[in-house]
Amino acid sequence: MSGRETFWRPFCENVAMNEDDILREITTNKAWPESSAQLCIRARFKCEYCDLDFLESPVAYKQIQFDHIVPRRAKGPDSDENLAVVCRTCNMDWKSRWNPAEKAVSPGASRSELVAACRQRVRGQREKCAAEGARILDILSAAQLGIAADGASPRR
């Protein structure tokens, strides 16, 4: 967590409740199904792939999604053990349909090994995205200086 004030995190860190009490409070108004609340508590309200703090802001809070670590299409079980709390970007853009069980780890891998493989995949995807963004910034900077991407002077 950064040093700046966050949306809900200070309240949550100062609450002296056990997980059962927290679960009861979260699900009291029926806005959260108990199973979803349990998964979020297990993940400490952070994306399990990139560590986005869902309680940092309303925008981050709206990013909460649930991912089948081993996709259902690959016969991944529909169980809490195969579900990860993730942000929309990790779920839809960076992990998507990728299956860690067939791509990165040995058969029979534990949940923590599968999540670690997903984290590594997301990290790699983020690095590719950052490199592409830097390339575009270089192109824009060169264009502002009047230099074409190939080093030649621009045509006028």
Q: Which short descriptors sum up this protein?
A:
single chain, 156 residues, mainly alpha, two-stranded antiparallel sheet, 7 helices, 47% helix, 6% strand
Protein described:
With 156 residues, this protein is mainly alpha-helical. The protein contains seven helices and two strands. The chain has helices at residues 9-13, 19-27, 34-42, 58-61, 88-95, 100-103, 111-145, and strands at residues 64-68, 83-87. A two-stranded antiparallel ribbon has the order 1-2. Helix 2 (19-27) crosses helix 3 (34-42). The longest helix has 35 residues, at 111-145. Residues 1-7 have low confidence and may be disordered.
Provide a concise account of the structure shown.
With 156 residues, this protein is mainly alpha-helical. The chain has helices at residues 9-13, 19-27, 34-42, 58-61, 88-95, 100-103, 111-145; strands at 64-68, 83-87.
